[in-house]
Design brief:
The complex is a heterodimer of chains A (311) and B (275).
Chain A: H1 3-15, H2 22-30, H3 32-58, H4 74-81, H5 83-114, H6 120-128, H7 135-146, H8 151-158, H9 173-198, H10 202-210, H11 215-226, H12 228-244, H13 247-254, H14 265-275, H15 279-310
Chain B: H1 2-33, H2 37-42, H3 54-60, H4 65-96, H5 102-112, H6 117-130, H7 137-161, H8 165-173, H9 178-189, H10 191-207, H11 210-215, H12 224-234, H13 239-274
Helix pairs in contact in B: 1-13, 3-13, 4-7, 4-10, 4-12, 5-7, 7-10, 10-13, 12-13
The chains are: A mainly alpha (311), B mainly alpha (275).
C-alpha cells in the first residue's frame, strides 16, 4: 500500500485546521473512544449476547399453557426422546465423519493449482464462483437437475446407470444435500488454502523435489506441516459452515424429508419455532447446537495443535 | 521430467471436468429460463430456440419478484451502510486508541463472532417483537447488522492496526480531533478494507434466507431469496418461469462476483491469515 503518498495527501488538507480551544477539547476527547464503540457494543449486547442468555433461560421454561413457568430439564428430555431430533444429531455425526473429505477436496485442488497444473489461473476463478450464490439459488438449481425424471438421471441413464432418487430416498437424500453443499462451498476453502500456500516456504518444496520426492510425499511431508494453521482454520470454518449454513438447502431441497432423514439441528429449531410454535423446545435445541459447536471447535483445535507439535 | 509433465496433464483433465461441473448448473438454468414450457418438456438439454425474455418478464412482474427485489435492495443497502459505519468506528477505536476495557471488549466481540443466528433466533425474534420491530424494514436491518457486525469489526480492526501511528500523530499535531482523524484519515485510508468487507456483507445479506424468514413473516415483506422459495410452490408446473426467477435473484450476485473477485477473496482470507 502506498503509505508514503497518502501521508502527503493528508497533510495539505489538515494543515489549515490548527489550534482551537485545547482544554475543552481534551475533555471531550476522553470519551471519544467510548462514543466510537458505543453503537457496536449496544447492538452486539442487545441483539446477540442478551438473546443468548435469554434463550438459555427460555429452554428451562415450558411451551403452550406452561409458557413462562420453570420446567427444569423437561425440554431437554423431550428433545432427546424426539426421533426427529435424534436423527438431526445422527446427521451431525455424519457431517463430522464427512468433514475430512470436505476439507481434503479443496486442499488437493489448491495444491494442484499451486503446483501450476495447466489452466490453474482459470480454475481459481471458476471454482470459487458457486460460493457467492445463495444456498436458496443453489438448492433451486439442483432441485431441477436432480429431480427423479431430471437431467442428471437422464445423463446417468445414457451411460447405463441409475436412475437414483437423489432427494426422495431416505438413505441417499442426506448425502445428496451434503454433496451439493460441498459443491457450493469448496471454492471458499480453496481460496483460504491458496492464501496459505502464498506463505509457504517454496525452497522446502524445491529441496524435496531435488531429493526425488513424489507428489504424495511432497504433500505429506512438506505441504501439510507447512500449512498446519491454514488447515486448522479450514477445518473449523467448514464444520461451522456445515452446522449453520445448510438451512437454505434443506428448506428448498428436502424440507427435512424424506421421513425426516435430512433434519439438522438448525432445521429442527426453525420447525419448532416457526411451524410448531414451541419456542422453549426450540431454545433447548439451540442450546444443544451451541454446545455441539463449542465442543467440535475446541476438539478440532486441540487435536490439530497436538499433531502440529509432533512434527 | 516428461513423466511429471504427463502427470500434470493427467490431473488437469479431472480439474477441467470439475470446472465444467461448477459452471454447468447455471448455464443449464439460464437455458431453461429462455425456453417455452413446451420446449422444456420435450427436451431439457437442447439449446433454447431463441433468446426469449417472456419468462423473465413474467417472473419479474406476475410472480412478484420485482417487489421482493426492491425489499432486498432497501434492506441490504441500509444494513451494509450501517455495518461499514459502526464497524469502522469500532475498528478505529479498538486498533488505535487505548482506553479502559478495550482488550476485553475486543475479546467479547471475537466471542460474539461464534454465536450463530440459529442459536439466538428464538429469543431474538421475541426481543424484536417486544420492540415492535418484527416484520419491519428496520427490524431486519438491525438483525443483519447484529449478525455481521462482529466479523466487520474484526476485519476493520486488523486492517487499521496496519496503518502506521505516525500518520495519526501527524494529523493530531495538525489540530484534528479524534473524530477528525476518523473522518479524514481512517475512512479514506480504510477504503480497500471497507470495499472488501462491504461486498462480503452485501453477499451475506443478499443471500440470507433464514434471518429474513424469521424477521419478515408476511408475504409482501419477503426479500428476494424468500421470494424464490415461494416461487417454487407457485410455479411447480412452469419450470422455465421458475428458472427465470432464480436467474433474477442470482444476477446481482454474479455481477458483483465478476467485478469484485479480488475484494471477495481478500475479505475471506483476511480472517485466516491474521486470526
Amino acid at each position: 500500500m502506498p503509505i508514503g503518498s497518502s501521508t502527503l495527501s493528508v497533510r495539505p488538507d489538515t494543515a489549515r485546521r490548527t489550534g482551537n480551544g485545547k482544554p475543552r477539547r481534551a475533555r471531550a476527547e476522553r470519551f471519544a473512544p467510548y462514543i466510537l464503540v458505543a453503537p457496536a457494543v449496544l447492538i452486539i449486547v442487545a441483539l446477540r449476547l442478551y438473546p443468548l442468555v435469554r434463550g438459555v433461560n427460555f429452554s428451562f421454561t415450558g411451551d403452550g399453557v406452561l409458557n413462562g413457568q420453570l420446567v427444569g430439564l423437561d425440554n431437554y428430555m423431550t428433545l432427546f426422546d424426539d426421533p426427529l431430533f435424534r436423527q438431526a444429531m445422527r446427521n451431525v455425526a455424519l457431517l463430522v465423519l464427512l468433514l475430512p473429505v470436505a476439507v481434503a477436496i479443496p486442499g488437493l485442488l489448491a495444491t494442484f493449482i499451486y503446483l501450476r497444473v495447466p489452466g490453474h489461473r482459470l480454475y481459481r476463478v471458476v471454482y470459487f464462483f458457486p460460493a457467492v450464490l445463495s444456498p436458496v439459488i443453489v438448492g433451486a438449481i439442483f432441485n431441477l437437475l436432480l429431480a427423479y425424471g431430471g437431467p442428471f438421471n437422464t445423463l446417468l441413464g445414457a451411460i447405463g446407470l441409475g436412475p437414483v432418487d437423489w432427494l426422495g430416498d431416505r438413505r441417499v437424500a442426506m448425502f445428496t444435500v451434503v454433496g451439493v453443499h460441498v459443491w457450493a462451498t469448496f471454492g471458499m476453502a480453496l481460496v483460504v488454502f491458496l492464501a496459505g500456500f502464498a506463505t509457504l516456504n517454496s525452497s522446502l518444496l524445491d529441496a524435496a523435489r531435488v531429493d526425488g520426492a513424489s507428489l504424495a510425499q511432497e504433500i505429506w511431508h512438506v505441504i501439510i506441516p507447512g500449512l498446519a494453521r491454514t488447515i486448522q482454520f479450514v477445518f473449523v470454518t467448514t464444520m461451522i459452515g456445515m452446522l449453520t449454513a445448510m438451512f437454505g438447502l434443506l428448506f428448498v431441497m428436502t424440507n427435512g424429508g424424506p421421513e425426516g432423514s435430512t433434519y439438522l439441528p438448525e432445521y429442527y429449531i426453525w420447525i419448532q419455532q416457526g411451524q410448531m410454535n414451541r419456542p422453549a423446545l426450540a431454545s433447548a435445541a439451540s442450546a444443544v447446537l451451541f454446545v455441539v459447536m463449542l465442543v467440535v471447535g475446541l476438539l478440532q483445535i486441540s487435536v490439530l495443535r497436538r499433531s502440529g507439535r509432533e512434527d | 521430467m516428461s513423466g511429471v509433465r504427463a502427470g500434470r496433464w493427467l490431473i488437469a483433465v479431472p480439474m477441467a471436468i470439475l470446472a465444467l461441473a461448477t459452471i454447468y448448473p447455471l448455464v443449464f438454468t439460464t437455458n431453461v429460463a429462455m425456453k417455452t414450457r413446451h420446449e422444456y418438456i420435450l427436451d431439457r438439454f437442447s439449446p433454447a430456440g431463441a433468446l426469449r425474455w417472456e419468462n423473465v418478464a413474467s417472473a419479474w412482474g406476475n410472480a412478484g419478484m420485482a417487489g421482493y427485489f426492491v425489499n432486498s435492495l432497501i434492506v441490504v443497502s441500509c444494513a451494509v451502510a450501517l455495518l461499514l459505519l459502526f464497524g469502522s468506528m469500532a475498528g478505529f477505536a479498538l486498533s488505535k486508541l487505548r482506553f479502559r476495557g478495550s482488550r476485553l471488549l475486543f475479546l467479547g466481540i471475537l466471542a460474539a463472532l461464534f454465536i450463530p443466528f440459529q442459536v439466538i433466533m428464538v429469543p431474538l425474534a421475541r426481543t424484536m417483537a417486544d420492540a415492535g420491530l418484527i416484520d419491519t424494514y428496520p427490524g431486519l436491518v438491525l438483525a443483519y447488522v447484529a449478525q455481521f457486525l462482529p466479523f466487520t469489526i474484526f476485519l476493520m480492526t486488523s486492517f487499521y492496526a496496519g496503518i502506521p501511528d505516525e500518520i495519526i500523530d501527524a494529523a493530531r499535531i495538525d489540530g484534528n480531533t479524534l473524530y477528525g482523524v476518523y473522518r479524514r484519515i481512517m475512512l479514506p485510508m480504510g477504503t480497500p478494507a471497507l470495499l472488501s468487507v462491504g461486498i462480503l456483507n452485501t453477499l451475506f445479506c443478499w443471500n440470507d434466507v433464514l434471518i429474513s424468514l424469521v424477521m419478515m413473516p408476511s408475504a409482501e415483506n419477503r426479500t428476494l431469496m424468500v421470494g424464490v422459495t415461494a416461487l417454487r410452490g407457485q410455479y411447480s408446473d412452469d419450470i422455465p418461469t421458475f428458472a427465470a426467477g432464480v436467474l433474477i435473484a442470482a444476477l446481482p450476485v454474479l455481477l458483483i462476483y465478476l467485478f469484485f473477485q479480488r475484494q471477495i477473496a481478500d475479505g475471506i482470507t483476511a480472517g485466516s491469515t491474521k486470526g
